[in-house]
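Cast an eye over my tokenised protein here and flag anything odd:

===
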Amino acid sequence: MVDLRAFAIIDQLQKQMAGYIGSTARGYYPVAGQAALFLEIAPGIEINSITDAIMKKANVLPGAMVVERTYGMLEVHADSPADIKEAGDVVLDYLGLKETDRLKPKILAAETIERTDPYMSQIVNRFRAARMMIVDDTMYILECLPAGYAGYAANEAEKAADVKLIHATVFGASGRVYLAGSTSEIQAAKKAAEACLADLGGRDH
């Protein structure tokens, strides 16, 4: 039986999040303003058949598909939110599940670091895949389960505040988001990221 771990619809991809997906994923890149769907399932190999079902029945493009040791992750996007809703319905019908059968997001860590040290900024930049953190930025780090929800949280944070998306991990054992900016904007982003995860209903872990 397939376990629906993450299921999150993004109504409007923000500029940095769209750019991040396009520069790091190996699928069809999205553009800002499109709607998107993030999925995570177990076992991971089943993401192939789910992707096949979506592509044959919904007018969407796949931005990323990852099959790793335990879980499978898929991101699809489209100009029309209705097409993304249809893609989500295809997934749920294929699995014989409801949206509320997904796992609830669980925040493992949420930290704010003010006035980052020059060496701290540099070492974070060594592994980042998006924008660069600079000295004295305030940094926000979020870690959550399942990993597929990290993309949703990053997008909602960007929507709510003028922050830099430094890095995001949307597959694997856990999801991670790194944001940087002024202290006031980071506080607004933190509030939005954590609130959007709290609002997603589903099964308890």
Remarks:
- The mean pLDDT is 96.
- Residues 106-198 form a domain with the Alpha-Beta Plaits fold (CATH 3.30.70.1710).
- The CA atoms of residues 92 and 99 lie 7 Å apart.
- The beta strands are 3-10, 35-42, 61-67, 72-78, 106-113, 138-145, 164-169, 175-181.
